[in-house]
Sequence to fold (272 residues):
Amino acid sequence: MIKMQQNTNEFETRLKHYQQQFEHLYETIQQGERALDDLEQLIDEYSGYILDDQPTQQYEHWRTSTSEQQLLIKPLADITARCVKLMESTRARRLIHGQLGSTGYFDNIEHCISEEFGQFEITPEDTVLLVGSGAYPMTLVQIAQETGARVIGIDIDEEAVRYGRQVIDILAPDAQIEIHQKTVAELEAIREVTHVIFSSTVEMKYDILAELYDLTDHDIVVSMRYGDGLKSIFNYPKQETHPQYWTCVDDITRSDQIFDIALYQKRSEGRA
Ligand SMILES: C[S@@+](CC[C@H](N)C(=O)[O-])C[C@H]1O[C@@H](n2cnc3c(N)ncnc32)[C@H](O)[C@@H]1O
Fold:
């Protein structure tokens, strides 16, 4: 019993330490990029940590023994989302200036794309929309190259859109990829979209999913990247959807990947 309590205390101390480290590096990098390698290393370590068995078990015990988990989980998800965004911008700047590197985090993200839609394969006739395409939109490049589909990214951030377009021009100049600073409601091609992917670190992803219901075709399939349990310290979690509209048709949980994927389709008896 005492051992279990010790483990729980150690776990909470570790999470608080991660939070302080991320906040410190985020502030430091605003003053200059020198600390970026430290941030990349920390993100790699953190990615490994959330996939490790021991902290996953500690999390389960901690969850049942505290009522204040959200006081730590949500701030960690928020600061790490900001750090990943910062790392993507820097990676984009480095590519644009001819100095490309790779980190474990990006390798992990980039290996996930082929399994994104499970049985709902993307064909060259399809149109894929990525919500939260980011400054370094590898998902767009890989889908365009692997499937030949038309690919559209949207992002709320002006810099992410500008860098994203420059990265595409370098990595996939001939692919059918567009990036816009628009909402789903503003996108002219929204009715043509057949597949949607939500980046895991888009906080409003379930609100946007609800909005998509009336805007899109009936057969659309949505891949919602998310992280529950210990993964929710690095991802926004899965939420319930309105029972009349979207239904979860598959849940792809991956013990070796930093986020999981829930696939949604429209309920046939819904409003569309
Ligand atoms: C860092 S990137 C992609 C990260 C990672 N590949 C993933 O799957 O989460 C996430 C992007 O989402 C964008 N974003 C956040 N909220 C958004 C929203 N409501 N609509 C569109 N883009 C959003 C951010 O500006 C950021 O560029």
Notes: The domain at 112-266 is CATH 3.40.50.150 (Rossmann fold). Strands lie at 127-131, 150-154, 177-180, 195-198, 221-226, 246-252, 260-266. Helices lie at 2-31, 36-51, 53-65, 69-96, 104-110, 138-147, 158-171, 205-215.
